[in-house]
Amino acid sequence: MEVNTFITICAFERSKKGMEFIMIKLKNLLIVILILIIIASVFVVIIMNHNETAVLANGTTISNKKYGWGVKRADNHEQPDISVYKSILDKYNGISMGNKDKKIVYLTFDQGYEAGYTPQILDTLKANNVKATFFITGHYLNSETDLVKRMINEGHIVGNHTVNHYSMPEISDDKIKTEILDLHSAVFEKTGYEMKYMRPPKGEFSERTLQLTSNLEYTTVMWSLAYDDYDENNQKGEEYAKKKILDNIHPGAVILLHATSKDNANVLDYCIKEIKNMGYEIKNIDEFIA
What we know:
Layout: H1 3-51, E1 53-55, E2 61-63, E3 67-68, H2 83-91, E4 104-111, H3 118-127, E5 133-136, H4 138-143, H5 145-153, E6 157-160, H6 173-191, E7 197-198, E8 204-205, H7 207-215, E9 219-220, H8 238-246, E10 254-258, H9 262-277, E11 281-283
């Protein structure tokens, strides 16, 4: 065998062994990467499960899966479908929609901040002898104490919308208690009034938050009639507001309106009169009939 040929063969063998070595290394590396991916996936599942469960003092767990309250509207003034969430709410004696055989509706307002329309709303309610429920935040109480006092003095219910309007499933048990009880104490100190109803900020809740709210001796109040009225800078006109409210009135309706809506303030008198003309009574949440 010639020397050059021998050298070539040796070089080829070395190259072949080198490639085999590299392939083994790559295979081992892929196995390690695969194992790491599996481990990471397990941790993700653990974290997700942790976020969707909470451990109670007695060691049992309760779901912290977050829900956003929603309503599937019906036609012909029939009750909408809220069954997806209502069964969870009912478990903790919450309120969302009244008796289907009673032509009674309940009027509620959310008050995160004041846009200048609440005095008009209160004037309209007084003129029509209608009582409503106003869910306020800590900011609203501190900035509009006189309006809160007026609500109370005129026989309306003031409800708890928490201090800072956080999504409740996203905060701890202790933080939830602080958000509810600090506002409760502040309202009592400023007005002598004790709140007993609360509405979760953003309509977001879990079984854990409902149980905590109930344990604080609060009744959670959701709704069965609402519309896109919440953006002060994107009002769609009074005729739109009238249609959305009146077309969807149904027995037992818990109506949610935002007091930041100019349209709501302007159509409220008309809507109250039309609702009564349709044969409905407008009662306060204290008179709720399930």
